[in-house]
Fold these 3 entries.
Entry 1:
Amino acid sequence: MPPSTASVPPLTREYANVHAAANSGVGQARTAHGSAVAIAEIGAGLAAAHASVSPKFLYDALGSRLFEAICELPEYYPTRTEAAIFAEHGAAMAHAIGHDTTLIDLGAGNCAKAARLFPLIHPAQYVAIDISADFLRESLERLQQRFPHIEMAALGLDFSSSLALPPTVRAEKRLFFYPGSSIGNFTPQEAVDFLRRARAQCDSDGALLIGIDLVKDSAVLDAAYDDPLGVTAAFNLNLLRHLNHLAGADFDVRQWRHRGRYNAAESRIEMHLEARHELTVHWQGGTRLFDAGEAIHTENSYKYRSSAAVGLLEQAGFQAMNVWTDPQGWFAVIHARAI
Ligand code: TRP
């Protein structure tokens, strides 16, 4: 593990260890590849009748950078629409949020979205959480130099399974920040369960600031998840390289193609990797034949009507909501209180 710098508390841990710890409570043995737990999880998904891989494996160092590139694409409206909502309604949000919060950034990535909030809400502490811990550490070190007065901590954690926060995270005025409509990558039931866990980490002075993508014309959605430049395809296909590394698999990226399409009945974008022809894949502890056209499901991205989004937050135990949207009604940012 590379040494951490003085400015960032050494909460950041290697992904594989954290993942194992999150599942078992103790550090588990690592193999030459990822943790034994990660390999078992990947193997089970690949061997299932409808093969699938958890979207959290999309975000290795290259995947995180490719996702940043997706956010620059004209077709990928969520990032810039959400940014426009923050730019337009930042003052109103700051008024609802107040100062001196403990800002807990779920899936912080390059920390840029939270950094834009700092001058508006003046948090007392900033806790950046992401699965790609190394990427996070680099981002946070730069940020600490720009905002030396905010206490900062980096935490490498797979928060999709557990939200247990170390005691170094202040209990007062916790504000869970969950932008980018990442909530859409859970099923609605998983989303409620996840938000309940966040709610359980709040005292009555706690709150949530969340970005949620809304239902819209399917042509707009399809273009956002299958862009003509192929950046989204590269991002999705990079998962196979990551699996080669984590699970000792032998995927040949050129044998696969990206598919991203809106399923209106389910109100979700479905992302797949599809075998271009019949092929066999081996990984540590398993093997599988894929027929031509057979696919690995990599991610869903649910889209909500704003009434359904509010309902989701209420089900999770949040109240007193403020909802801000863009003029086209494509995206919503919601502040909800634990009360
Ligand atoms: N959370 C992003 C979203 O649902 C992730 C994403 C964007 C994604 N494009 C993708 C995931 C393509 C897999 C494949 O918008």
Note: Residues 34 and 113 are 30 Å apart (CA to CA).
Entry 2:
Amino acid sequence: MNLKDKIIVITGGASGIGAAMARRFAAEGAKHVICADRDLVGAQSVADDIGGTAIQTDVSLEADITSLIESVEKDIGPIDLFVSNAGIIMEGGAEVADDDWQRIWDINVLAHIRAARTLVPEMLARGGGYILSTASAAGLLAQIGSAPYSVTKHAAVSFAEWLAITHGDDGLKVSVLCPQGVATSMTADIDTSTVAKDGMLSAEAVAQITLDAIEEERFLIMPHPQVADYIKQKGSDPERWITGMQRWQRMLNEQAS
Ligand code: NAD
């Protein structure tokens, strides 16, 4: 998929990875980038820089997600790419209170599902569309010290896989981004003593990796500190950072031929 002339919505577009994607995708010639975030001031500042639109959205509320999608489609046009990127981190384990588990579940998991509930039937009716969600490397391997984050990100990866398996043949494109150690406000606030600082990627690097992956229609995109060098010199061994569905698809193709 080429982003030129596309209408793109990015949740969590006020800062970090979402803001970097908004800037990168706009520079790539997107027709309109909509930054949706509960932080309207931050979203507006990014939107002003790129000639886009900011819409205040709390992704933990289904009504906000529905209204975001409906207002964009009514006032701007059909959404070509929806980036479900807003997320929070929460440290702790089983002792974390149910209310807090529910809060992170609503943002890190239900938001993806609720967006798909509105978007997928509409995208399928017009022949397809692209949904990209930001999960985490913690969605592939549990992260020490953060059960709520790991569990919800696993669920986000699983939902993306389900979407791809269910609707991939109907024209819907799905990708799930699984980064680790990206220098944003999220990692500034947490204890990163277990994360190698020199392995951290910038949000801009992740946005570029995401752009490459969207254009090449990759499913699981995994910028990981251990492969940061590879990612910088893109093109050496994709097996190391593109996993999951793509390998599985390749295996099926090999079996069929
Ligand atoms: P960030 O804190 O800079 O950005 C997160 C954005 O999401 C913020 O603008 C915030 O206002 C918004 N947000 C949070 N809750 C929201 C809600 N309920 N409704 C609307 N907006 C909300 O952090 P980031 O690192 O850019 O995170 C973006 C995504 O990347 C998240 O899903 C995060 O889990 C994921 N991620 C980040 C890292 C990392 O190392 N930074 C690693 C793996 C995955």
Note: The first strand starts at residue 7 and ends at 11.
Entry 3:
Amino acid sequence: MTLKNQVKLMQEAHLHMPQGVAENYRYWGDEQTVFISSAKGAQLTDCDGKKYIDFRLGYGPIILGFRDDRVDQAVIRQIQEGGTLSGFSTSLDTEVAKQIKAMCPQIDKLRFANSGTEAVMGAVRTARGFTGRDRIAIVEGSFHGLVDEMMWKSDIENWNSGDLLPPKIIPFGAGIPENTRELVDFIELNNFESLEQLFMMRKDSLACVLLEPIIGNAGSIAACNCWLQRLRDLCTENGTILIIDEVKTGFRVAKGGAQSLYGIYADLTTYAKAMGNGYPVAAFGGRSEVMAVVGSHAGGVVHGGTYTANLVSLSAAYATLDILANTNALKTVDEAGLQIQALLGRVFTAAGIEHAFAGPPAMLGIHFSSEVPNNYRQWRKVNNNLYKNFAWKLIEYGVMLEPDSREPWFICEAHSQIDFAWLEDVATKAIKSVL
Ligand code: PMP
């Protein structure tokens, strides 16, 4: 039998990279790690020629489809006519800033970055610079990138919902300094008591609360409006900066992101993923008064980076944001998401499986329970093993997704052309074979 290309590529990759991958989250096991040879629209082709309809979309950035011609041509023009990077200002910086402001009314001033991690780092530092305080609070189940302080989480795997004590807080892995833990508090989504306690305890030391109101890293479980409003009010009353992390939701769930769906606005916001349709670009920004601390003036907050606002990324952002602002792309995405939700609903109902859909159609959380969990601790009670088995079956049949119900299904404009009848058929087969 000839060896699959996947096996050969993985064997070779192991010689050169830890676990044989370029970054941790791509390692799915020696035989399961996926090597992709090309991507177009909503379709991936792996190194052995197998095709997948992709609902993972590179962890969420692909909003229009892979290799979108409108974006790629803008990038090619930029490279050929203006180059990739000069380390100086260009008019494009201001043009993209204006586009973001036009779509997101809570942004007065912003700065650029290359990844969600960097945008979060910039926003948190700005909040600390503005308030003169060090502590931060985050919501259980969220993910905010790879800065040390963000690398703490609730040990939910070893916690049962009947436990008297809350889950232990543990690092995501080795190498995270213990003293960064000291600066971080955790709150539970939609738990008012947890909010009140936080502000009672940390009134004068809390620089910021950082959250994804629709948790893109916990199955799109969403904050209820009144809880988010109470958080907003407490931040205002206590001089704490509210940072909304729209790295996953921004320019995806609506033109103005999650905040426009709630009508509740942050002091600072982070964006990345969908703003560049797969090119590495990010931004953080917010109220003028807060952003005024950023700069090289005495006492200013440091922000910079060689590749910041590089022209490949900014030209991609300009083209992507232009399409999102001025076409029906997000409406198409929403409609495709609703259609997928409806067909999966039929499949689960026919199989007699309790299910609940969370989040907006562009970022669909699927939970095998009678209702959407209210927060990350409740997610623990949901039948995630069934989801995992279902997801692996779908992958086998050519539907790509993350085999973990914490990662929502991402929809892109190119999904409007997929064969929904095929998907319904495949999902029916997949669920039957794992029951
Ligand atoms: N914030 C959120 C909400 C995220 O989902 C992620 C990544 N999934 C990040 C920040 C970090 O972004 P990046 O991977 O671009 O560094």
Note: The domain at 69-326 is CATH 3.40.640.10 (Aspartate Aminotransferase; domain 2).
